[in-house]
Design a protein that fits this description.
By secondary structure, the chain is α+β, with helices and mostly antiparallel strands. Helices cover 37% and strands 20% of the residues. A five-stranded mixed sheet has the order 5-6-1-7-8. A four-stranded antiparallel sheet has the order 9-12-10-11. Strands 3-2-4 form a three-stranded mixed sheet.
Length: 417
């Protein structure tokens, strides 16, 4: 669906909407990464805050609604965000904390229904049909979730309540921030048809331009256009898809939990780097961060991949599958550096490196192989001690010695602010 936000359509009548049959909920955290980052910084609440790397070549991960009023959006280059909102406070992301909060939120969803379909760390579909007898109407369940998440996690969420996934997701986006919209089955068409075409799931800028050229500006216009006309203009698949959505038709069920297929992170250097020592140090930092996120998600993985982007933006990836799954930082780092060294780069100028773990499985069900040369309290125990220290004192409280250095003396890392 288009990322633009639209005002919620008006309803006729003053009565509360009838939520009978509206058993699909789409729950979406409000500015999740930003709100989660502010839990430890309550002094910044109500101020424009931007989450992302401090360098000019990084991009915005998230921003508070106060920063968004200046035009700051996710995926925007940080340099542009700083120009648009010079008074904004920049905080570096804490992915381990985000994963921990996400796990707690997903546990809250699971306490309501076992039919939960996560879409990312901060949003999910829920089918609450089987929970109504125990917890009440869909509207009541949605409010219960909002209150519980706010009380227990200190962040807000917006909820769409509707008969279908598409309408529920659209409703939650229109309810932002910190709101709830219920769309009764009898009001779905009235709700949809007054929206602009860009609100439909799957309409990007180019498709919207095509529709507007055809004189189709609202969802109602699409609904009353022959499907054959839409197919000729947009292609069979897109034309049929949009016609179905314009009439509120979405037969997709909520699919039980889909775990992340991979977890990883990357870093764009402040300027192009050709020093393998600096690159190895960055791979160590990224390996530590990736491993922490994997452990926080309760997962282990077998396949480790790296991404390398050169100064001319050429990008290559390399991967290696281990014999046994792991969540150990050292295992990931050793494999990542081995993959990088095998490239045989001779002082090539590098713009970005990334580390990712794939082939994820539940840690509780993964076999853990002890290494013959590993002491009784080895790397896995050390990682868990670091996790406990990070949970208590903040991410980065304990780190490898090679990463404890003056960032201004390191040509590959951006200075922190």
């Amino acid at each position: 669906m288009s990322r633009r936000q639209y005002a919620a359509p008006t309803r006729s009548g003053d009565d509360e909407p009838d939520d009978n049959g509206c058993t699909i909920l789409h729950v979406d955290m409000d500015a999740f990464y930003a709100m989660a980052s502010l839990i430890e910084r309550p002094d910044l609440r109500g101020k424009p805050v931007i989450i992302g790397g401090g360098g000019t070549r990084s991009v915005v991960l998230s921003a508070t609604y106060e920063a968004r009023t200046f035009g700051v959006t996710s995926a925007m280059p940080m340099a542009r965000a700083r120009r648009m909102c010079p008074q904004g406070v920049v905080l570096e992301p804490d992915f381990a904390r985000y994963a921990q909060i996400s796990d707690a939120i997903m546990a809250t969803f699971a306490s309501v229904t076992d039919i939960v379909e996560p879409l990312s760390l901060d949003e999910a579909f829920l089918d609450v049909a089987g929970a109504q007898r125990r917890l009440g109407s869909p509207r009541h369940i949605a409010q219960l979730l909002r209150d519980t998440i706010a009380d227990e996690q200190g962040i807000t969420c917006s909820v769409g309540v509707a008969p279908t996934k598409f309408v529920a997701k659209l409703a939650s986006s229109l309810a932002k921030p910190d709101g709830m919209i219920v769309v009764p089955g009898a009001e779905v068409l009235g709700f949809l048809h007054q929206l602009p075409v860009g609100a439909l799931w799957g309409v990007g800028e180019r498709t919207e331009e095509t529709l507007v050229r055809l004189g189709l500006r609202t969802v109602a216009d699409i609904a009353h256009t022959p499907v054959e006309t839409l197919r000729r203009a947009l292609g069979d698949v897109t034309g049929s898809h949009l016609h179905r959505l314009s009439w509120g038709r979405d037969e997709r069920p909520v699919v039980r939990e889909r775990r992340e297929k991979s977890i990883g992170t990357d870093e764009t250097f402040a300027h192009d780097i050709d020093d393998p020592v600096v690159i190895h140090r960055e791979l160590l930092r990224l390996s530590d961060r990736t491993a922490a996120r994997v452990r926080a998600a309760g997962m282990m993985g077998r396949t480790i991949s790296i991404k390398v982007r050169f100064a001319d933006f050429t990008t290559i990836t390399r991967a290696r599958t281990l014999r046994d799954p792991t969540d150990v930082s050292r295992d990931i780092y050793v494999t990542a550096t081995s993959l990088f060294d095998a490239l045989g780069l001779q002082r090539a100028r590098i713009r970005l490196v990334g580390v990712r773990m794939e082939g994820l499985v539940e840690a509780a069900h993964a076999p853990v192989q002890a290494m013959l040369d590993e002491p009784d309290h080895g790397w896995r125990d050390a990682d868990r001690a670091v996790d406990r220290a990070s949970a208590r004192f903040g991410a980065g409280a304990v780190r490898p010695a090679s990463l404890v250095r003056d960032p201004d003396a390191d040509p590959g890392r951006r200075p922190r602010r």
